[in-house]
Amino acid sequence: MHFTHIDNLPSVLSAGKLLADNSVGAHLRTDVGAADIKASRRTRPVTCPPGGVVADYVPFYFAPLSPMMYRISREHRDGREGCYPGGDDPLVYLVTSIDRVHGAGLPWVASHGNCAAGVTTFSRALGDLAALVDWPLMRAKYWKNVPEDSDRVRRRMAELLVHREFPLDLITGFVVRTEARRTQVVHILRAAGIIDAYVDVRQHWYYGYQRGEVRE
């Protein structure tokens, strides 16, 4: 699951692909990423082929309600100066599958946690994913650290990283928070000549900061 601000969707559709942070440049109209995290990803090496740094890859999470999205919703709620102020409501998920990525022959690697953490490892082997990713944690409603396991947050941030760019024809659908956002996304898709895309409303993939609902 890759998410981006709805403002970015027209340029993504025009390009026909998602671009890695090191390549996106002016294509990114509204940046929701945290500057400190993005800076770290531009220097964090990927330790297996095709190598490079994390920012050379298009990131996908293995589960919704990521710690990164929580940070976005929290910063909106707290009104933190210098942070993206829009919360998670305008964010659109672009969804794909590991089978599609691998079957298309795209160069990818997976991490077993937060890519900025020094202890996180990477693998490019499909057979490693069953053990590399903490799948029960990906399916869990709550992911915060607990006394008996202080590493849950890092592991919940495991990613599938696709090198340089990701073609949109491998997207299986789009997910938004409200019916109003669904109408907006459908309009953007139709303006781009896409009339048969799957667009769904899944409020449980969002934090619902307006009601004080936080899942961590």
How would you explain this protein's 3D organization?
With 216 residues, the protein is an alpha+beta fold. It has helices at residues 9-15, 21-24, 35-41, 67-78, 98-103, 129-132, 135-139, 152-156, 179-191; strands at 2-5, 17-19, 57-61, 91-95, 108-111, 122-123, 159-163, 165-167, 173-176, 199-201. The strands form three sheets. It has a four-stranded mixed β-sheet with strand order 1-4-9-10, with helices on one face. A four-stranded antiparallel β-sheet has the order 3-7-5-6. Helix 9 links the parallel strand 9 (173-176) and strand 10. The longest helix is centred in the last third of the chain and has 13 residues, at 179-191. The protein is globular. The protein starts with a strand and ends in a 15-residue tail after the last strand.
Quickly list its features:
alpha+beta, 216 residues, four-stranded mixed sheet, 29% helix
Low-confidence stretches: 209-216
**Sheet bearing the most strands, described?**
4 strands, mixed
- How large a portion of the residues is in β-strands, by DSSP E? 15-25%
The helix content, as a percent range, equals 25-40%
Terminal residue distance: 18 Å
- Sketch the topology as an H/E string, one letter per element: EHEHHEHEHEEHHHEEEHE
Q: How do the strands of the widest beta sheet line up side by side? A: 1-4-9-10
Number of strands: 10
Assign the structural class, choosing from mainly alpha, mainly beta, alpha/beta, alpha+beta, or little secondary structure: alpha+beta
Assembly type of the chains comes to: single chain
Q: What would you report as the Rg, rounded to the nearest angstrom?
A: 17 Å
Question: What characteristic shape results from the CA principal axes?
Answer: globular
